[in-house]
Amino acid sequence: MSERRTFSRTARKQLSSEDRDRMIADMLGDAETDTASKSSAASTKLPAKTTFIESLDALDALDAEFDPELAEVRAEEVEQQIINELREHNALVDEAIAQIADVSSEPLADDVAHDALIENLPAESSTEVNEASQPVMPRRVKPKPLSLGPEFAMSTAISDAVVNEEINIPVLPAVDESTAPERLEREAEPIPEPEPEVEPEREPEVSVAPAQDTAIQNKLRSAYETADIPDVTEPADLWNKLAVMPVDAAHLEENLIITASRQEQAHGAFDVLRTRLVQTLLEHGWKRVAITSPSRNCGKTFTAVNLAISLSRYEANRTVLLDMDMRNPSVANVIGDPNPGCMGDFLRGATTAEDFLVKFDRNNLNIGSSLAIGTNGIVEPYAAELAQDPLTAQSINRMMQEMSPDIVLFDMPPALAFDDVIAFRKQFDGVLMVVGGGSTSPEEVREVMRRLGEDTPLLGVVLNQAEGEDGSDYSYGY
């Protein structure tokens, strides 16, 4: 041995006294140890209970009595014993490898049978066999020679190194028993799993308007500020500002306005007509009604005024009656208006609805304030042309906005006598036909509806028999 092992005090302090004696006995041998131990036991044997300093002194004494030559001889014997054991181990390994190689080189019984079957098959059948119908016999694969693991390679390398005397057994470092439990506990502690990375919250992107958009917005803003835009306001409700006229009950009774005093039995027929008409208009969303007749003297104005006064007792519904018979105006005479207006001026826009319409003043006949009447005292020679004029439509629409009426009654001229009703067709929703008992034929009624067109709704037919002696002669059809 070229190198001699030494035992430092630092490693030896970690061993007990019994371990030290056993180590020395193994290294010096049994024969030498018997004499040495007997001689040294009397002088260096430590008591059962010694101090740490005394143990160090005893170890120093052992170092002084150590024989290097004897320890070297013992080390050579131990090394030779290790080499012999390794050689025996390698021999066993080689024998096992040879047995495995012999077994793997022998063919298996199934492989022999398979090869014999393949050889006996004719050459032609082997090429014409249908693979889809002929089952394929599995062939056993011969096992490959066993490949030795790294442990066998290690033992072979160790044996070769020992034979060539190139082995150099390293000295393992001494284990510190005082720190071993702490190290084991540290190794046993589970490795904490890495916490998942939390993605930082993205700040909301602030969209910055391009300079071009800002310039366009500034240009639009300046144009809006400099533009002359009229203020749009809701039209004022002018109903309560209308002028009023006194009620002359004797005059109304003289002109057969039976719904005013309600003394005649016929007023019930107008109440029924009123109710049925309101229901029909509400059902279809209509508001404008033209009252006409096929010919003269059928009582259309008489019917229009009585129906308007009956509607005035519906306080929740506003009703407007306009005298559109501009060739022969008569509403002002029937109701007793001393200052009738001019229908032509109103339709052309020269007079506002506030100045043109009038209401009945408070009265004992219970004629409500929800009725406004537009009378006419001037004959219009071009009534049909004015009825079709766009100014007429504008004036009526303006009146509808300012007064917000629920029902508008137009007292029109006879339909077969003039073309005013046909010219005014776009301004009303339906027609209420008044026929004279004994004077109007069914052909005349059909002719009126033919002229107005099939798309004009016929809201009802009123049969007027004003020539009768009592109110029972009034009737209506719906």
Which labels suit this protein?
Rossmann fold; disordered N terminus; alpha/beta; 478 residues; single chain; rod-shaped; 21 helices; 9-stranded mixed beta sheet
Description:
This protein has 478 residues and is an alpha/beta fold. Among the domains are: 58 residues; 239 residues, P-loop containing nucleotide triphosphate hydrolases (Rossmann fold, 3-Layer(aba) Sandwich). Helices cover 48% and strands 9% of the residues. The chain is built from 21 helices and nine strands. It has a nine-stranded mixed beta sheet with strand order 1-4-5-3-6-2-7-8-9. It is rod-shaped, with a radius of gyration of 66 Å.
List the helices and strands and how they pair.
Layout: H1 9-12, H2 17-28, H3 30-44, H4 52-65, H5 68-105, H6 109-120, H7 123-128, H8 150-163, H9 180-188, H10 211-226, E1 243-245, H11 249-254, H12 258-261, H13 267-284, E2 288-292, H14 300-312, E3 319-323, H15 331-335, H16 343-348, H17 353-356, E4 358-360, E5 371-374, H18 383-388, H19 390-403, E6 407-411, H20 420-423, E7 430-436, H21 442-452, E8 458-464, E9 475-477
Parallel strand pairs: 1-4, 2-6, 2-7, 3-5, 3-6, 7-8
Antiparallel strand pairs: 4-5, 8-9
Helix pairs in contact: 2-3, 5-8, 13-14
